[in-house]
Design brief:
Shape: globular
Strand order of the largest sheet: 3-2-1-4-5-6
Number of strands: 14
Radius of gyration: 23 Å
Oligomer: single chain
Helix content: 40-55%
Bound molecules: uridine-5'-diphosphate-xylopyranose, adenosine-5'-diphosphate
Length: about 475
């Protein structure tokens, strides 16, 4: 029998868009997305599609099409679990902040809670799909929890890691390069995998649906991100070298990327990578390698993170050095707070680090981001615990209209590559600012020659 009812636990950046696209492409399947967070579910159900809890281009149209037809958002977790034939687990797996593996291992408490809840509630056989990024061999732990319930229900566990990038999630899902389905090589495992493969076959051709064993699937997710992050750290390492040799990192990236063996993607020098996956997945990989005593392997991947931290610090330091080694009392505008354009996600965003560095130097920081609300900016800074909440409030101003930001500022630092920054009227911004006026372009998106001709002093990563 094919799948009729899907339940997805976790209505976040992964679960929300993924289930919306499955519901859109499979009108014959009921998809219920559940979450403990009532406000989040209320926002998913908001009449006004501009109020969905996550911003993702094209998501509103997909939700608008499927919601109420075969796509539902609910807080009734038990009911949705019980009714489903297939349950996706899309809860968050942040890096552990306590105990063994602190700062490296993935915190699996949310996954374990889900497994216990499923085990308690289920009265019929279920296929459980790991969607969250998990350290290799998590499926084994899941299986043990599920099977120790003893109420006769059978569970088949599949790994189906997400490869969507935020900002392009809908396109990545609708036109995926590949989906991975990891399964046990047993009759039941193969049958369960077939049911999941059949779902994706509603819109993807068979050669894009890869079947592997569960451990390969789990490890592929971590390592795909590690390889991508490694490219960003590689080009960022070169950006520093370019700055001292007068090579231009964009030209170098173009030259490297034209080699078809290397290819053009993920070669944009930046203020450093952010997002919920890269750092977490690499730390996970490092932790797993260390656990097996593979120190050289661990050190190799850890260097990708060390390079990324260096790049963020280097950018912040550059700002201070250029402003005559003191930013105390100076007003610095940060354009962009999200970790990249076209998302309202700020997890591990380099902007947070840059702001923190500048605040420690007693700068006055003004933040503008087209999609991130002020509460999020303050919460991100408070989370660092570098200074008190009241100090963050008094030193940082968040504006919703960029025009309010520039007046009497000393410098602007572009931290996220939002397209709208490119079309600003830089002449009038220059007039509003104190002189000399500085622009620090962390993502190399602005026309530096034009800015220089207006009168700005400019720095762009990798261009000196
Ligand atoms: C990533 C993976 O791409 C996706 O497959 C996975 O499932 C989740 O993690 P995401 O975190 O949304 O997706 O963003 P991605 O587009 O991969 O970018 C990650 C970071 O690298 C961003 O901060 C981005 O700005 C930065 N980056 C990317 C660069 O600095 N330069 C580049 O050339 C590309
Ligand atoms: P991701 O980027 O992995 O999607 P998010 O943090 O955006 O991460 O989303 C994960 C969601 O999972 C959160 O909205 C959280 O409330 C939800 N969640 C975590 N644990 C549970 C649980 N046991 N039951 C239901 N929802 C959960």
């Amino acid at each position: 029998m094919s799948v009729k009812n899907i339940c997805c636990i976790g209505a976040g950046y992964v679960g929300g868009p993924t289930m919306s696209v499955i519901a859109q492409k499979c009108p014959h399947i009921n998809v219920t997305v559940v979450d403990l967070n009532k406000e989040r579910i209320a926002a998913w159900n908001d009449e006004d599609l501009n109020k969905l809890p996550i911003y993702e281009p094209g998501l509103d149209a997909v939700v608008g099409e499927a919601r109420g037809r075969n796509l539902f958002f609910s807080t009734e977790v038990d009911k949705a679990i019980d009714e489903a034939d297939m349950i996706f687990i899309s809860v968050n797996t942040p890096t552990k902040t306590y105990g063994v593996g602190k700062g490296m291992a993935a915190d699996l408490k949310f996954i374990e809670l889900c497994a216990r809840q499923i085990a308690r509630v289920a009265t019929t056989n279920k296929i459980i799909v790991e969607k969250s990024t998990l350290p290799v061999r998590t499926a084994e732990a899941l299986k043990r929890i599920l099977e120790n319930t003893g109420n006769g229900v059978q569970f088949d566990i599949l790994s189906n890691p997400e490869f969507l990038a935020e900002g392009t999630a809908i396109e990545d899902l609708q036109n995926a390069d590949r989906v991975l389905v990891g399964r046990e090589n047993t009759e039941r495992g193969i049958a369960a995998a077939k049911k999941l493969t059949d779902i994706y076959a509603n819109w993807l051709t068979p050669e894009r649906i890869l079947t592997t064993n569960v451990w390969s699937s789990e490890l592929s997710k971590l390592t795909a991100n590690a390889f991508l992050a490694q490219r960003v750290s590689s080009i960022n390492a070169l950006s520093e070298l370019c700055e001292v040799t007068e090579a231009d990192v964009n030209e170098v990236a173009r030259a490297i990327g034209s080699d078809s063996r290397i290819g053009p993607k993920f070669l944009k020098a930046s203020v450093g990578f952010g997002g919920s996956c890269f750092q977490k997945d690499i730390l996970n990989l490092v932790y797993i390698a260390k656990t097996y005593g593979l120190d050289e392997v661990a050190d190799y991947w850890e260097q990708v993170i060390i390079m990324n931290d260096h790049q963020k610090r280097r950018f912040a330091k550059k700002i201070v050095e250029t402003l005559f080694n003191t930013v105390s009392g100076k007003k610095i505008v940060l354009l962009g707070w999200a970790f990249k354009k076209d998302t309202n996600d700020t997890r591990e965003s380099p902007a947070i680090y840059v702001a923190d560095y500048l605040l420690s130097e007693q700068a006055e920081v003004v933040v503008y981001d087209p999609k991130v609300p002020s509460e999020k900016v303050y919460a991100d800074l408070d989370y660092l615990n570098t200074r008190s909440e009241s100090e963050n409030k008094s030193l940082v101003t968040v504006v919703s209209n960029p025009a309010e930001a520039f007046k009497d500022s000393h410098a602007i630092a572009v931290c996220t590559e939002w397209d709208e920054f490119k079309s600003y009227d830089w002449n009038s911004i220059y007039d509003d600012m104190l002189k000399p006026a500085f622009v620090f372009d962390g993502r190399a998106i602005l026309d530096i020659d034009n800015l220089k001709s207006i009168g700005f002093d400019c720095y762009s990563v990798g261009k000196g």
